[in-house]
UniProtKB/TrEMBL annotation:
The keyword Signal applies. This is CBM2 domain-containing protein. Residues 135-162 are annotated as: Disordered. Residues 7-376 form the GH26 domain. PANTHER family: GH26 DOMAIN-CONTAINING PROTEIN-RELATED, MANNAN ENDO-1,4-BETA-MANNOSIDASE E-RELATED. PROSITE patterns: CBM2 (PS51173), GH26 (PS51764), PROKAR_LIPOPROTEIN (PS51257). Keywords: Glycosidase, Hydrolase, Signal.
Amino acid sequence: MLIRRALPSGALFAALLALAAALLPAAPASAAVACGVGYTVTNQWPGGFGAAVTLTNLGDPVAGWRLTWTFATGQSITQMWNATPTQSGTAVTAASLPYNANPATGAAATFGFNGGWTTANPVPASFAMNGVTCTGSAPTSSPTPTRSPTPTPTPGGCTVQPVNPTPQARRLLCYLYSQYGNHILSGQQESTWIGGPDYENTSFRERLDGAAALQQLKNAGAAVIWRPFHEAGGAWFWWSKEGGAQYNRLWRYMYDYFTNTKGLNNLIWLHGYNGSPQSAFYPGKQYVDIGGADTYAGDGNYDPQKAMYDATRAIVGTTVPIALHENGPIPDPDRLQSTGARWVLFGTWHGNHLTVSNSADHLRKVYGHSYVVTRDELPNLR
């Protein structure tokens, strides 16, 4: 089913998500380091396993963490999310990412990984954070550490750069990259569209200038996932009526005007196809941070939309996260995992598309599923 809609009044497009990401001060060099670690094997199969790790900061606030441990029987890390792995033989290091590098006293950072094993898979005997063994107890004496102070880390662990590289935008994009293939972020879209006979007659530049909320968000230190000219290739919207070359020219014009004229360098650019992605309607990786496609599959159809995902991936490449940027029925999380449909987020349209296309039982399953990230589970990206 194809839904044809106009866009919200006063602007040409919709922003999916805005997140403030103000910088936090670094911890003092003399901070006391203490920690506790929870390590759980969440799943195991012949030759492989999954694990979840919770690192609780029991000392002073830290400016970046590195958790180290040793695998006793030669296990190996094959994939990690919410941290960056390094392994040399049996020695493993998991390093923080920009969005979870500064846990306050009593706060926890969580990450997970998949790994391989051969003869056995015991839990590591001990862990250390920034060189200090995690005992599970808070410091009881002088806060002066007995080791050299840990330097404030550079924003390492994530090499991706958004096309508009503010620190806030980079943190947000790094978080999306960390979730890509490991979880799917939940979302819902609303519409406040009120049509009018002068809509198409208003000059394009005036409508660009009308996006004042983006400037306000930039001034507030927020990064925005920005989704202009959605359902690319669908001739029901005017921006696709004249073919791919004109569509790409329009996208690049907006990008140049927003970035170079308006200085809106806090945007994460999401390029969204309709249900039949066409390579002719792709402005190029230098103008796109996230790919995407959409479909309204029919009430109760919880298909993972793997074919549409693969078609989008064939155009945008293997290194760009891909969003299900609009949907009615929400794909079944178990089938997303089993088929490898690695959508990084979904955006369920409001009204009946949420409450009729999805049963109450399915909604409970989706929003309670460990693969789905809900609003309350988002990390602090400040």
